[in-house]
Amino acid sequence: MISLHSHSGQYCLHAKGELEDVVLRAIELGFEVYGLSEHVPRSRPQDLYPEESHITPDDLQATFTAFVANARLLQEKYRSQIRLVIGAETEHIHADTLNELETLCRSVPLDYVVGSVHHVKGHPIDFDLSRYELAERAVGGTEALFQAYFDAQYEMLLRVKPSVVGHFDLVRLFRPNHVLSDNVWTKIHRNIDAITGYGGLVEINSRAWKKGLRDAYPQRDILECMKEKGVRFTLSDDSHGPADVGMHYDKLRDYLVERKITTLHFPMANAETQSIDFDPEHPFWTSVWK
Fold it and tell me: Quick check: 110 and 162 in contact, CB under 8 A?
């Protein structure tokens, strides 16, 4: 089976464990395709997280370079046991972020990109509630935050055209009961149309259950809209260490069955996309996640 979004404590300070141990756990669980996708480096000191107070943006750049080199070694080392694809997860924080991303992708060849938005107007929205509330105040409230989030996502989609769109509705993390207004739905429809227009995949991300949400990202109302518009889906555990690999894939299996998802996709190193049938009775699902 598939996961296309992961992190390790070796290269991400809010994760745990070594990158190779993430790979070994994926092999142990029977993953056929596993994506290694550490965060792209942030360029400004003010964008560092609290656990990064002892490092600099230059350190992040060196860490990312080391990640790609190690990931390529692991890709070759375990080629006979698992298909590893090497990528990165985007940031979109300030006016130059996407320019920096384009420069990075030209200098560091990657198999794919996970297109994610974690900030609105420079404020992180998934680190903790207090920072989420700062973002709300910065833009004028919850409704404005939702609209600004999907606008930032749209800009990222147009510029980057990521192979995989990460946690599409992350903005709901701390406001899961916020009713989506007509204006927000208009932006969601626009963003979905952008994804289908360039042929991107949307991850169904199981980490949402660790955060206490009802569904995986995207939540079922948006997922159904995506299905109607012909979006192609992939899967992600968004693991943050070996112990997270395959996290909540039992719930994910049931979610796929419930939402009638029958086909999954994943990117190849040559930028093409391969599809597979989702079989809930496959040994991957029945032997590990009973």
Answer: no
